[in-house]
Specification:
By secondary structure, the protein is α+β, with helices and mostly antiparallel strands. Helices cover 27% and strands 11% of the residues. The strands form two sheets. The chain has a three-stranded antiparallel beta sheet with strand order 1-2-3, covered by helices on one side. Strands 4-5 form a two-stranded parallel ribbon.
């Protein structure tokens, strides 16, 4: 099967590209060209307003119909739209993650952080049985190929500060506000 490239969906953060195959989603990437340099804002407890997002044609102007994409990619697109509309708290489409055993352990741990809650890098390190590896945890989180779904945005510093985020701190703040998350660490 020839690769179709990513399916692109409209979100309040600008377009999101979803990559994957029949086994599952392999990556989600922020295509921030339409929001570059702009802070993303949402009121606490308010659902995201997709009217400010780019038009949603499913695949950024290509002539490929949505049903040509593998089922996990289509499921991811539908579930991410529901998440941004405030109607979904968990994702259940298949993932096809590749990484080192350490990275995979970190990413599995991230998936256990409940919607609307945050945890610290130190909490993740303790939870995976590597209590002194919080810097390595930060590096594994930074290489997470499936943001939002593998919720690296829910990890903050032990002092309550946001720490970093590959997509940018404005996106991390947006996602935490969307989920109504308080900056409480575990």
């Amino acid at each position: 099967m020839t690769s179709l490239g990513p399916m692109t969906i409209a979100t309040p953060l600008g377009p999101l590209e979803i990559y994957g195959g029949p086994q599952g989603v392999r990556a989600i990437r922020f295509a921030r060209s339409s929001t570059k340099g702009q802070e993303v804002r949402i009121a606490p407890g308010q659902a995201a307003d997709e009217s400010k997002a780019i038009p949603d044609d499913g695949h950024a102007g290509s002539a490929v119909p949505d049903d040509a994409f593998p089922a996990p990619v289509r499921q991811a697109a539908a579930q991410l739209k529901e998440y941004f509309a405030g109607h979904r708290r968990e994702f259940d489409f298949p993932l096809d993650l590749e990484g080192t055993p350490f990275q995979l352990a970190v990413w599995r741990c991230l998936c256990s952080i409940p919607f609307g809650e945050t945890r610290s890098y130190a909490w993740v390190a303790r939870t995976i049985g590597r209590p002194t590896a919080f810097r390595a945890v930060g590096q594994a989180i930074g290489s997470n190929p499936i943001p939002i779904v593998v919720p690296c945005h829910r990890v903050i510093a032990s002092d309550g500060s946001f720490g970093g985020y590959t997509g940018g701190l404005d996106i991390k703040r947006f996602l935490l506000r969307l989920e109504g998350a308080e900056a409480a660490t575990g």
